[in-house]
Design a protein that fits this description.
Largest sheet of chain A: 2 strands, antiparallel
Shape of chain A: globular
Structural class of chain B: alpha+beta
Helix content of chain A: 55-70%
Oligomer: heterodimer
Helix content of chain B: 25-40%
Strand content of chain A: under 5%
Radius of gyration of chain B: 28 Å
Number of domains of chain A: 2
Structural class of chain A: mainly alpha
Largest sheet of chain B: 9 strands, mixed
Number of helices of chain A: 12
Number of strands of chain A: 4
């Protein structure tokens, strides 16, 4: 079948791209992030070129370039590197993981998560959880903008379960048991990186389980694991590591609790731009 | 008019290979003790091992001195030592914000340069909140265990662990330790988290025998996954601001707080010449302004550089000689053994001003592979000397006035300083202008240039470039989309 490049304006990815780009612009201009434009450019070029390569070789629908843009924005927002070529490498790995690490006709890892973990393991990059500061305004904006997207793709259950579970655990341990004042806990939950991760990474409809029940179990265990890792083992990157590990059990969850697989364009009417 | 580096400088280049990228003279620095209520800490992280050196610039009577530091493990005697006070001064001097100067070349004649002597600002003395101590026996009902007692240098050291926070609080109060009110709320979480308390008092007899006026810094090292500085215990009350300067050393790269935002202090800005005289005050006001602008909850980066013995250039320009092997050893950077590749050291200087309300959590850090250099640096540019009556000279005077306007604007933007007399500074050279009766009809070219946007330490292409290239990428995508259509049209034409 010959694919033509067409984007429906109802495609939820367009809104996601818009929101992520505004975060990037905010961080870059207002929060004065470290990275130079070369690094951001490398992320975009790497993701788009790799996606084009795979579209060509696998004869895929060209509108998957939108997913590549989202991955590129995710890399720019979360990953920090010393030199642009590491970012380019991360971008190539990020996109290629979608085509090379597959099971049951679905990629296993969230591509951005995969790219970030690989770069972290190689010691070539880092994540700056503090880069957003603890700004309530950013947190609120993140929350509402994410909500609009997540309702569109019906994946708000994952974000809500994850955040609530983590919050309850944190309140129980830090506030009720250890006796820290409540602003200690709130400080953690106004962290932009955690919210970005919650709303835009674990909710990826392509890598989260297909059935709602499975998704809730999955998000719960993800929250518990990252809580344990951060509280008792002092892994500041706990959620990213937990997501990587838990992506591996998604295929089994999908087998146990069957539901149709998510497709970005199946639910939307195709309207030509 | 272009600024020029001089022949005098070239001589310096040859005699000191450390200063290859040397440009401009260091004239002044803003040392850490400008700030009241500040403390200094050297933080060394190597794998799981953390070495913390705490400076004791305690100003009161030494018999009143006491310190309580939460530590994750019970320290052995060989994990505690007395460090040399001088290492703090050397690291501070080396990494302090700096003022550098350039000299313009006279466009009308062959170069002639004048240099000012180095000038170091006198700094105010810092003060530290008092904590009293008196000794008494440990009672069972406190549920406080003394894990170890050591006599090291002039200090008597206790390591306590507690079963409950109220017991510990009573013990500390009954033993004469004054605990800040707001600090009590963190004793419970520390105790429940199985944190030990490192308690230090001065042994007066040994201190007298030493013959020193000051107290020596204490250095502790331990292995733990936690990489943090407990600031919460030291918070006297909600309103008081305290300054903390962290000199951090790692093998890999920068140290970065993970639960607070790190902001680069404004740097590489051109400021008026008279700032040299008030540089200490200037930096204090600049820091203050940045602190409020960043909503009082950020950590400021003042210096970051690869200071490995193998690495040539360590600052631009250097305020004082770079750390030597003895300094590294004193600070606890034990992996530096000589001029070899294992001796990689990265130096980060962070400046935090914290209050209870804006810093609810202890400072938690991570080591990143980020090796980008940074220094807080402010630039003075001396005008050209001599006769400026030639055409190029006249043009130079106009440019100079414009530049000085920008400098004065920068001074306002950075430190908030204004003074009507700054006009005289801007127009200082107008007397060298050749007068012409038609001058009064000349177009007014002295509009203000926008301040800021000078340099944010980004040596990559500009942001405009980014948009240009990403725009081109999108255009390419658009073309790719319409390729089929275009081909069809071509075929039709054919």
């Amino acid at each position: 079948m010959k694919h033509t490049f067409s984007i429906s304006i109802k495609d939820p990815r367009l809104l996601q791209i818009f929101i992520l780009s505004s975060f990037l612009a905010f961080g870059w201009f207002y929060l004065d992030w470290y990275a130079s434009s070369k690094i951001y450019l490398a992320a975009f070029a790497g993701c788009i070129l790799t996606q084009l390569f795979w579209i060509k070789t696998r004869k895929l629908n060209p509108n998957s370039i939108l997913s590549a843009l989202i991955s590129a924005l995710g890399l720019c927002l979360l990953l920090k590197v010393n030199a642009w070529y590491w970012m380019f490498g991360a971008a190539v790995l990020t996109i290629s993981s979608k085509f090379l690490v597959r099971y049951d006709g679905k990629h296993i890892f969230n591509p951005t998560n995969f790219g970030i973990i690989l770069v972290l393991v190689l010691g070539l990059g880092w994540v700056s959880p503090g880069q957003w500061g603890s700004n309530l305004l950013i947190a609120v904006f993140l929350f509402f903008s994410a909500a609009t997207i997540l309702f569109g793709v019906k994946r708000w259950d994952v974000a809500l379960t994850f955040l609530l579970t983590l919050f309850v655990l944190e309140v129980f341990r830090s506030y009720l048991y250890l006796g820290w004042p409540i602003d200690f806990v709130l400080h953690k939950f106004s962290n932009g990186t955690l919210l970005l991760f919650t709303f835009f990474m674990i909710t990826d409809p392509r890598t989260a389980p297909n059935h709602r029940k499975a998704r809730i179990i999955w998000a719960c265990s993800l929250a518990i694991t990252s809580f344990i890792l951060s509280q008792f083992f002092y892994f500041y990157k706990a959620p990213i590591i937990a997501l990587f590990a838990f992506s591996l059990i998604v295929p089994f969850l999908n087998r146990a609790i069957k539901a149709p697989q998510f497709n970005w364009i199946s639910k939307t009417k195709t309207q030509y731009l | 008019m272009k600024t020029r580096i001089t022949a005098v400088l070239l001589v310096i280049l040859f005699i000191s290979h450390d200063a290859i990228a040397f440009c401009g003279f260091y004239v002044s620095k803003a040392p850490a003790d400008l700030f009241n209520k500040k403390s200094e800490v050297i933080l060394v992280r190597d794998g799981r091992k953390t070495t913390i050196t705490m400076s004791n610039d305690f100003q009161g009577d030494v018999k009143d001195f006491a310190m309580v530091v939460p530590v994750p493990v019970v320290l052995k005697k060989n994990q505690i030592r007395i460090a040399d006070r001088g290492v703090f001064d050397r690291l501070d001097a080396y990494s302090a914000p700096r003022l550098v100067e350039y000299h313009d070349q006279n466009p009308c004649s062959s170069p002639r340069y004048l240099y000012d002597d180095m000038m170091v600002e006198e700094a105010e003395q810092a003060s530290v909140a008092n904590m009293r101590s008196k000794s008494s026996a440990i009672k069972d009902e406190y549920k406080v265990t003394v894990e170890a007692t050591y006599a090291i240098g002039e200090y008597d050291i206790l390591i306590l662990s507690a079963k409950e926070s109220t017991g510990l609080e009573h013990w500390l109060v009954d033993n004469g330790y004054k605990i800040p009110k707001k600090a009590k709320e963190v004793l419970e979480p520390y105790v429940k988290n199985n944190i030990k308390f490192f308690v230090v008092k001065v042994n007066l007899e040994k201190h007298k025998a030493n013959g020193f006026e000051h107290l020596n810094p204490i250095q502790i090292n331990f292995e733990s996954d936690r990489f943090m500085l407990p600031i919460r215990l030291g918070m006297a009350n909600a309103e008081d601001e305290q300054d903390l300067i962290v000199y951090a050393f790692t093998r890999e790269g920068r140290v970065e707080p993970i639960n607070y935002r790190t902001v680069k202090i404004p740097s590489n800005r051109n400021v008026p010449l008279f700032v040299e005289r008030y540089f200490g005050d200037f930096y204090k006001d600049l820091f203050n302004r940045s602190y409020y602008r960043e909503k009082m909850n950020s950590v400021f980066l003042e210096y970051a550089w690869n200071v490995s013995p193998m690495n040539g250039v360590k600052c631009d320009p250097c305020v004082s000689p770079p750390p030597v092997f003895a300094d590294f050893k004193e600070a606890g950077v034990d992996w530096v053994t000589g001029m070899n590749n294992q001796s990689q050291v990265f130096f980060t200087r962070l400046h935090v001003r914290y209050t209870r309300n804006k810093f609810p959590q202890d400072l938690q850090f991570q080591v990143t592979p980020n090796r980008e250099n940074f220094q807080a640096r402010y630039i003075l540019t001396h005008p050209a000397q001599g006769d400026l009556s030639c055409n190029a000279g006249q043009e130079y005077i106009n440019e100079l006035e414009q530049r000085r306007k920008v400098e004065v604007d920068e001074l306002y933007a950075l430190a908030g300083w204004t003074n009507p007399n700054y006009k005289d500074y801007i127009e200082e050279y107008s007397r060298y202008k050749n007068t012409d009766e038609y001058d009064k009809y000349a177009p007014n070219k002295n509009e203000l240039l926008p301040p800021g946007g000078m340099d944010h330490g980004d040596d990559g292409p500009s942001k405009g470039y980014f948009f240009l290239v990403s725009g081109a990428l999108f255009l390419l995508l658009f073309l790719a989309k319409h390729r089929a259509e275009i081909r069809q049209r071509r075929r039709k034409v054919a």
